[in-house]
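Bench log, entry 3. Co-assembly request; chain sequences pasted below exactly as received.
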Amino acid sequence: MTPLLQVDAVSKFYGARIGCAEVSFDLYPGEVMGIVGESGSGKSTLLNCLAGHLQPDAGAVRFDTRAGGLRDTITMSEPERRMLGRTDWAFVHQHARDGLRMNVSAGGNVGERLMAVGARHYGEIRNTATDWLGRVEIAADRIDDRPSAFSGGMQQRLQIARNLVTGPRLVFMDEPTGGLDVSVQARLLDLMRGLVREMGLSAIIVTHDLAVVRLLADRLMVMKDGHVVETGLTDQVLDDPQHGYTQLLVSSVLQV
Amino acid sequence: MIQVEKLCKSFTLHNQGGAVIPVMQDAEFAVAPGECVGLIGASGAGKSTLMRMLYGNYLAASGHIRIGGVDVARAEPREILALRRDRLGYVSQFLRVVPRVSTLDVVAEPLLRTGCGADSARARAQELLERLNIPRHLWTLSPTTFSGGEQQRVNIARGFAYAYPALLLDEPTASLDAGNREVVLALIEEAKARGAAIVGIFHDEAARHRVCDREVDVTRFTPGLA
Amino acid sequence: MNVSAYNFAYLDEQTKRMIRRAILKGLAIPGYQVPFASREMPMPYGWGTGGVQVSAAVLVPEDTFKVIDQGADDTTNAVSIRRFFEKTAGVAVTEDTARASVIQTRHRIPEMPLRSDQILVYQVPIPEPLRFLEPSEVETRKIHSLEEYGLMHVKLYEDISQHGAIATAYAYPVKVEGRYVMDPSPIPKFDNPKLTMDAIQLFGAGREQRIYALPPHTRVVSLDFEDFPFEASKADHACDLCGAGDSYLDELIVDDAGGRLFMCSDTDYCTTRRAAGHVGAQGVPAKEDVA
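Structure output for the full assembly:
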């Protein structure tokens, strides 16, 4: 089976400092990969390199495009990469403000990706937006409100709706529950689990919260100082950690 | 159906001076379809460890674990994920609860993951919950607030929702009263009858003698004890 | 009048050459905003410096020049600009659209169809149609170069969701030759269909330092939704002075009781019609109207 994403020795340096080094893995359709590590581990750098936000210094990121099979997205032309970013890929930011247009209504935010790929029927766009707001548990009567009037959790759910409306195959998430209240986090995680399963999404989720990966991720990569120190099935890495750092990380989590 | 060959494992505790604890040496046994094998041995001898290794939850140091065409000891993560979805089930000792998911959805989930329709998945879930005497009014609630016994029964219902060809059961009758124990044993017998290969840990001797065709003593594979 | 104190049309020849190059590039890529080195003019930014620079670059001594400001030849600014070119270029000037060879306009297209031997020069305040949605110039340039215009429709979507219809009444965005989205300057949307014409159209933004152009017969489509199509609407009234039912109208309040008068915004059009004998509901016959 062809992997959906093939990451090949991706490295990013800041002068002599390592952002991330020699990271390789294959992601298959329907798999969710968690990347955990503490601050400075390089996980966000890696995510941004994979998603095309940062230019890596070495390596390839091959995506199984619909038309052309496995293509290296790093050497792709910018129009192609931006098109990918609007259709097959999605990026959920830690702060909803970075992923939403705050001065555009919720409906406009969700509809933008549709309009960007050619949707030209107002009624249909609005119906699709309403449908998606329902799927992320935002009341339909808020479709014309601006995100600045939403709570943090609602903004994050709107961001998810905005990203998923064009049916992407791969979702990148950067600390999607960071900064949210615990109860709000729980609701968001349930939603994401459901959507990932329903839509058969693949996802790469960066987080420092082991509970998030336990819930959402099938596979796990542990990063420290820019290197991947351990990788495997989530439950295996968390229940039977092999590397010293992973063992430390797992034993540090407080049991409630 | 399940074949274990020369399986070895040790734990290395890097943060405690690098202490190495060997726990398994050359474990070997097989389970045929329709058979139920009981793992026995003193507490701490490695029964749960072995079961977790069969599921891919613990890593093997060397050896083979062949289930459903996959060698769990050295397979790719996606192969193990696929195996767990439609060929290998696992009922652990404790239910890991996701808050906000209703009991019905917890039990239906394994079926939904195999592509079963939402309606028939829920119907099957209801059937099992009724058999296991979980009151109807609890079905829409999350199991978070249930008693240990109730949670265990929900766990068992989830484990038996999908007809796995291979099943791992860790203390399925613990914390159950006589009536519910009977139900669980009946479920195991039905699974055997349809050809499932089962590995189980039963502290309850009567239960073990009832459903297990053979016993495997894991102390045979424990280094220093054998 | 001392014409010899100024170079022809005020600007030095090198500047005119630079502007002409920008104009040629704009004509070659219809709707694309060409950056140009806008000069300090003897009028402040916001008073038509872009239009004036374009006019200065295209005028030749044989031209006849007309200036309109929201359709009228006789506003202070229209008169000032006309006098400026009379003084610095010595060209003939006129208020008659049919006799003009170069017409500089602020926010209107003349009602009379223009000919292939005429040039229309627009004064443009903000050339970037996406500016209000995307403040970053770097980002809007990328949007134009990659043709990622989804955001433009978001603006129209917002209008419909807030007002029930596309509320943009002027500066209505258009797509040029199926490629660039362009701001046609703050002309009323009623004028948008006229953007496909026989004459050359040049757009100058002095403060923003951009020139763009539409060659004759360019395909210009106003943006809309399938279920909310574009309408070139105007006040549902005829001109009270000349009776024209097809021209864009200004509305005047004439007394304290709220009495109103609708008149053609294009003063030359109205005058020409009245001279030909047309009379509107509140008009007087032309021969009695000594102006």
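The longest strand of chain C covers residues 64-69. The helical segments of chain C are 13-28, 49-58, 76-89, 137-146, 150-163, 267-275.
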